[in-house]
Amino acid sequence: xxxxxxxxxxxxxxxxxxxxxxxxxxxxxxxxxxxxxxxxxxxxxxxxxxxxxxxxxxxxxxxxxxxxxxxxxxxxxxxxxxxxxxxxxxxxxxxxxxxxxxxxxxxxxxxxxxxxxxxxxxxxxxxxxxxxxxxxxxxxxxxxxxxxxxxxxxxxxxxxxxxxxxxxxxxxxxxxxxxxxxxxxxxxxxxxxxxxxxxxxxxxxxxxxxxxxxxxxxxxxxxxxxxxxxxxxxx
Length: 235
Ligand SMILES: Nc1ncnc2c1ncn2[C@@H]1O[C@H](COP(=O)(O)OP(=O)(O)OP(=O)(O)O)[C@@H](O)[C@H]1O
Ligand SMILES: [Mg+2]
Description:
Bound molecules: adenosine-5'-triphosphate, magnesium ion
Number of domains: 1
CATH architecture: 3-Layer(aba) Sandwich
Strand content: 25-35%
Structural class: alpha/beta
Largest sheet: 6 strands, mixed
CATH topology: Rossmann fold
Strand order of the largest sheet: 6-7-8-3-9-10
CATH superfamily: P-loop containing nucleotide triphosphate hydrolases
Number of strands: 10
């Protein structure tokens, strides 16, 4: 469904992604793991048209979207949940969620999507009038994901969805990602933790300094010697 091939991205003169190729199949959960500065966020932004690509190709459902402007993202069936949630802090939970449904194509399905989202995230209904900034970090992440789902994506991209959350909230979000995926939505997410990334994905990619250095099934990645040695500190 998503095919990135030979992607190169530069910020000014500094190249940060090098010949990167990754794929997400329909219905798959794919994790991109890498240390700080390895290019995880840049990859997601390039896919969504938030940063320009220097060369290479991005295809979504067979269509070349390499030079698509970011504002077309939701109408083609992709949605991005940004790092650190990025809610509108002084708006209510429901106002934040409904922002995800502003696109024209999403409007006629708003009611049924909201019902689904409220079923997945009961907290949306329970706290609908609460000001977003008064929610906990994990609750805000739920609101951000709910907002991302309101446009009816077939591919949900998430930049470090577990960042800064308590273990309990992390498992709640993992469960939600599984529930979302069960509904046929493919997921591509970034994460710095080996277990959290590869342990919760069908397939994974390891990035180092803007390059894919390893890829494979999630469980294979978890058991890979290099991954274990470098990222799990085992010898
Ligand atoms: N807007 C920008 N302008 C210039 N350089 C940037 C910009 N955004 C990111 N970079 C650089 O690009 C490289 C990749 O950054 P990116 O944010 O994609 O990494 P990341 O893997 O998401 O890191 P983190 O784990 O810290 O979120 C880094 O060296 C970073 O300093
Ligand atoms: Mg990042």
